[in-house]
Amino acid sequence: MARRVLILDTTLREGEQTPGVSFTVEEKLRIARLLDEVGVDMIEAGHPIVSPDVYEAVKKIANEGLEAEILAHSRALKSDVEKAVECGVDRVAIFLGVTDKKLESMKLSKERAIELAVSAVEYARDHGLKVRFTAEDATRADYGFLVEICKAAVEAGADRISLPDTVGIMTPWKIREFFERCSRDIPAELDAHCHNDLGMAVANALAAVEGGATAVHVTVNGLGERSGITPLEPFAVALKILYNLDTVKLSKLPELSMLVERYSGISMPAHAPIVGENAFAHKAGVHTAAVLYDPSTYEAFPPELVGRQRDIVISKYTGKAAVAEKLKRLGVLLTDEQLDRVVAEIKKRPEIRAFRDEDLLELVEHVTGVKPPIEVPRAIEALVLVKCESNIYTTAIARKILGIKGVENVYEISGEFDIEAHIVVNSIMELNECLEKIRTLKGVHGTSTRVILKKFNFRYSSQ
Ligand code: HCA
Ligand code: CU
Asked: Over 50: is that where the pLDDT of 416 sits?
């Protein structure tokens, strides 16, 4: 098994092929920059011939001066490769379907397919690009032909070969053997690209690495055609935990995942590994009691590894130990008998699926008749969207807004508005004062304010 695994992120290419997803050029740049900070080795930025905005994004990302190698996807056509050259990417990934059915659908003979692949690879090499050749649907192709076309691509100058499991039909055992065999027969570095149609993309990618793949394709949150491909987050953590292989900065994964959730409009389910809201939450009394004794009893790895924190859910499943611990964190100490009564009351309220801190404190007050010694802050929070005048430097205004009392955070955003400010104040009067100050700033064209009613963003306490 390889001692080093390269991570190729294709959120911007495969990920944008997710139904319903279309990133703006600016969003792609932000994602690419964060991917680079996180430390992926290769970024597949897009297929430039798809549309003018994809072209622009690939070109801009290629010229960002990022550490990662930047790739453009391309069919085995000179016109596609030309676009990749124009964009200034480091590497072009030339793909061609290699199953009999796909060749038939394109009316291509095997000989013609090899010719097309070879001439596209040569053209790219002649123009100074590194080349990966992708034998699309490799896991369902005729093995003899697969090896033949890959060898021809290597001879023409490709130094990486991608062998995608395009419809996700492999098992870990099969794909491991497949990569072992291809490693012997194809003289190049191999990439694995595993689709998740049967939920095996992470397992299959790990098995491909065991079989000899030296790079694995992932997307943030597992985006991609149909059920997507190997998600970066569990894959990178599994490499660390199960194989002791270091790849990306694991503690930055939640931030990356949230950014892509926001731009893609696709949220992760609560029980998603690593980044799901529940990934480090413990509920049953038996579990929480053991976790409070030693977290490893019910945790495969500490949440801090991925920049998160453990959570204890208070519900009808909760035992005394968990309630005592939760209250201790809130600064409340109860006698044993009081605790018993609080737990009993919790169990009488199955309709409350998870007690928020405030609910719990209210219950304590109700049961014991004592007002807990801490105040639940009842601040007013609002989001103010700011539109700047067109000739004004947004960053300068953002800085000024950050200086106003009550403004907690300021973001420069894309879309209709230019800036978003997060305000936390104690009264409506203070809110109005704050808004007035923002509105009357020189260069501010208009604002739109939304008061926050409920917050769902306490998922990642490290943020
Ligand atoms: C595609 C197909 C692809 C290519 C993978 C690769 C697949 O959408 O063009 O270039 O390695 O799954 O076969 O994503
Ligand atoms: Cu794919």
From this structure: yes
